[in-house]
Each structure stands twice: as structure tokens, then as C-alpha cells.
## 1
Amino acid sequence: MRIDVLTIFPEYLAPLDLSLVGKARSVGLLDVRVHDLRSWTTDRHRTVDDTPFGGGAGMVMRPDVWGSALDDVLGLGRAGDAEAAPDGVAPAHLLIPTPSGTPFDQRTAEALAGEGHLVIACGRYEGIDARVAEHYRQVGAEHGGVSVTEFSLGDYVLNGGEVAALVLIEAVARLLPGVVGNPDSLVEESHGSSGLLEYGVYTKPPTWRGREVPDVLLSGHHARIERWRRDESLRRTAERRPEILERADPAELDAADRDLLSSWGWDVGADGLRRPRVTEGDPSPR
Ligand code: SAM
């Protein structure tokens, strides 16, 4: 997979040399290229921003600078006239971090892990002129060669898109074959195929500051361990993220899951799950 990141702070992406992502890069599983947006400026001051039309605080990133940079990195040539991608250029996915984008989640990471070329455009100031996303969306719709997704890390505002780029790259890269040493460790994680949160995990020593590891995990009884972990996943999800359970497909629940959820007051019907009404002073589903 190739990932291009465009930013006015290339140094911000230095952590991509570390840990599993750094290793994936060094062995050629992942080709990450970080570009300084200012390389595409044409004035002496290397200006990338200007005042907002309509007035107001802050500065907006200029579409002409972004357009030159993205045309080059996306391999679209001078796409100011919405030209098609040249033949033989693999379609790229332009990802624009913004608090007003679609929430980024594990399903998005999985979908992106199946693609060949991602381009991340990191905004700063009040963000990138809105015509940039519109333009490349139109180019993609009319001529192919690029798709565009504006994505958000969550309902808060960061200073720039670099952290969002780091998050996206790490979430996607660890799903690429060969990046995580033992691929089994990806299977039962939070937000995996079951959609549930992961159960609590424990290691040595078996007693720490008076706290014991649950007996069942020391029993060596695989079926009982599996059932305990499933129960813990359900319990954590019900307690911490009940909205995830409410979106779950009831057909994915076995009889023990249903009994457990019912014992916590959940309504488990064929058409979905509904959390119990919280009575004052008892927010726990237990
Ligand atoms: N004025 C923008 C707004 O209110 O939506 C916020 C701009 S923010 C200060 C500057 C840049 O940080 C954005 O262009 C985006 O690249 C990034 N950013 C900030 N919050 C983000 C979030 N929650 N998710 C993804 N990117 C974010």
C-alpha cells in the first residue's frame, strides 16, 4: 500500500518511523511519503492560507496551493480542468480530516486496508477551502481516478489534521497482511467482527496488590474460558457502549448471550436489542 501525506508540518509525522508502522515501512509492506505542502507554493513567503471570504476569525487554506499539490500526488496532471487520471494510474483515495467528516471507525479502516493508494490532506487553521473536496469529488465522479472521503476522529477539534493522519495510518496499517506478527491477535479485538468491546486481559503475576486473576483463566478449560470472555465482552459493551449493542444483529447472539442480556434487563427481540431503562442510582446493567 502507498500512503501520501500532505502537511505544512512534515516533522509531525516522524512517529511513522517507529514501532510496527516503522517496521512495515522498512521491509516494504507500506510505502509512506510525507510531503511539505509549501513545496507547491509560488510566492516568496510560501503562503498556504488567506483570510476567509465573508469575514470572521482565522485563516483558510488556499485551494490553488492544495490543487497543485493534489494534482501531482494523485497523478491527475493539471486537473484544474477536471481532466481524467492518465491510463495506468491506480485510483487513489483522497482522505481529508475534518471535524465535520464521517466518523472514522474500524469498518472504515478495514475498507481502506483493501485499497492501494491513500492520500491524506492535513488541514490547519480554519481548514481547507471547501472547493477542494468538491473538485476532486467531481473529478472522481466524472472521470474516475480518485474518490474522496472527509473523515472525523471524533466530536472535538484538533489544531491540525496530522494527528488524524497518524491515527488513520496506524489503524489501517496494522490490518495489512504481515504488519502485526500474529494475525490471530487481530481477530478478537474490540470493534472486530462481533462489533463488541474486548473482555479484560490479564498476565502474570496471578495476584497483584491483592487482586486475583479470574480463576477461570487459570483453569486451562478452553470452552469455559471462551464463554467467560464472551460474557465479559457483552458486559463491558453493555456497560460502556450500550449503543453498540443496540446496533448488533440479534441473529449473532447465542442462547447464553440472550440469557445473560435478559438477566441484565435487556430486551432481546428478533428485531433488535434494547437497553434496560436506567433506574436512578443503578446505571449498571448488572
Ligand atoms: N474550523 C474547523 C471546524 O470548525 O470544523 C476546524 C479546523 S481545525 C482547527 C484545523 C484542522 O484540524 C482541520 O482542517 C482538520 O484537518 C483537523 N481536525 C481538527 N479536528 C479534527 C477532527 N475531529 N477530526 C479530524 N480532523 C480534525
## 2
Amino acid sequence: MARIFSGIQPSGELHIGNYLGAVKNWVALQGTAESFFCIVDYHAIIAAYEPSQLRQRRREMALGLLAAGLDPERCSLFVQSDVPDHTELAWIFNTVTPVGELERQTQFKDKSARQESVNAGLLNYPILQAADILLYRADTVPVGEDQVQHLELSRVIARRWNAQFAADADFFPEPRPLLTPTRRIMGLDGSSKMSKSTGNTIGLLETPEEIWAKLRPAMTDPARLRKTDPGNPDVCNIYTLHKAFSSPDTVAHVAQQCTTAGWGCVDCKKVLAGSMETELVPIRTRAASLRANPALLDDALASGAEKCRAIAKETMRGVRERMGFTA
Ligand code: TRP
């Protein structure tokens, strides 16, 4: 049976970029195969952070994921640091990975270029990611486009470790990305990817008033200066959001009103706000009941971690045996 694994950073706020870019797909996939979704707190500590905030962000992320529809009956939702084997396997994978391959990763090049001193964790980030996936011997990894190169490296690591240590050759399967159907979501500025660090997000659990306060001034077609100018939906981030949240009929109507200057951008945004409400109301309701009943969250994470520790232990037994660590 196929195994699905994916991970998300505990940034605290789950925003609609994470939701449309990854989490909504996880919700659709859970239960179609054995599924593991991980809050990657060991990855998160690469950048300077406040321990009390890490605790709170991990929890807030778990709450967001459950509210978004992850169901502990159909998947294992867990925190990476609750399963210490992730770091043991990462250490082992360090020893079969050439530094040159890590230095060639686009994300490393981008991030390290912006820093004066680069810590080894940033370079080794994709090794820990490979360990996350392979610890569960997962073969399918639902992610966005930006993770494709990391996944390629995970396959190289699996292949190399298998060749070196596994007479049975395919102890670790080679994991494949399963790309999210939604195109990447830009932030409210319309020009950079929606991300917490850029501060251009809409939180999945924000109130309708908060969402409207962000949508109203959000960037649309930059060339449309007046309400009477026709717009081009294909370059408009609000139109991308309509495609994610509105019905096909509404999307067609929006495009027609935009290109004929029938609606101004604010009219269009009001319709979008309505479509978002339809999808977000049940999510907000689930979040409220989780906040009222924190034991539900604790139980979900505890049972996820317990299931994962058992599988991880089994994989590590096979790894240690093949690498000569057992008597
Ligand atoms: N690097 C991923 C991101 O930034 C998060 C992640 C960590 C992940 N481990 C993973 C994704 C394993 C998929 C599989 O989005």
C-alpha cells in the first residue's frame, strides 16, 4: 500500500497560501493511503527563535491543521520532535550526501545569500527532510512546486543508501512529489509568494472583518487604474483566489465582468469575500470547538506520535542492522 508523508513548518499561523498550496490537498488525500502529516519543529529552529514561541506556534499549527479538516481517524498528525528517530536517520543520511549537492539546492542558495553567517542546519535542511519521509518509507509526498528539488535529493539519498547498505536494494522506496493542483498563491501585494515572513498573508482562522480589511486594499491587475478600464484576470491575484474559492459559474462571471469593466475591483473582491466565507465558516467553527476543548488537540498529537514512533522504531531497526550497529 502507498504511504503518504508531508510536513509543514510550525510558523504559528496557518494561512490561505499554506491551505491552498498544501493542506487542502492533504485533507483530500488522507485515508486514500496510510497518511502522515508532520509539524517540523526541528526544521524550524534553524533560524533564531524564542522557545516559548515555538511551543505556542506548534500548538497553533496543529489546531489549524485539525480545523482545516485533517482527521486523526484517517491520518497520523504529529510533531517531529516527538519522534527523535528523525534526527538519528538524518545523521546517517549526512554520511551518504556530498556537500556539493546540498550547496546546489536553490532554497539554500537563496537563503544563504541573504545571511552573513550560514549555520550547518540550513545546509543540511534537505537531509532532515529526506529522513522525515524515508523514516516512514513513504513513497508519495504531496507538496508545492518549491519542494520538487528537495524531493529529488531525497530520491538520490534513498538510492545511494540502498546501494551501499541494502542487499534487498529497495529498503527505502524513492519518494515522488505529488504536486498540489492549485497554482502558487501570491501574497496581498500580488508580487511575492504568500508567506508569514513577508507579512502578506490572510490567516485561515481570521474573522470576516479582518479578511475584508486585507482584501479591500489588496493588489489586483496593476495596469487597471480606473473602474472604467477593463482588467486582465490572468494577471490578477484576486482572480487566482476566485479560482480557488468560487464556483466555476462565479469564476466565469467574474472574468466577464472584469474584462468588460462591468465591475470595479471592490465589487469583485466582495464576491470573493463571500466565496471565502462559505469555505472558511466550517473551519472556523472547528477551530472554536478545539479551543474550547484542548484535550482533543493533545489526544490527536499523542496518538499520532505513538503510531509514528512504532513505525520509526521498526525502520531504524532495519537501518541499524544493515549498517552494522547491531551485534
Ligand atoms: N520543507 C518543507 C517546506 O518548507 C517542509 C517539510 C519538512 C517537508 N519535511 C518535509 C515537506 C517532508 C514534505 C516532506 O514546506
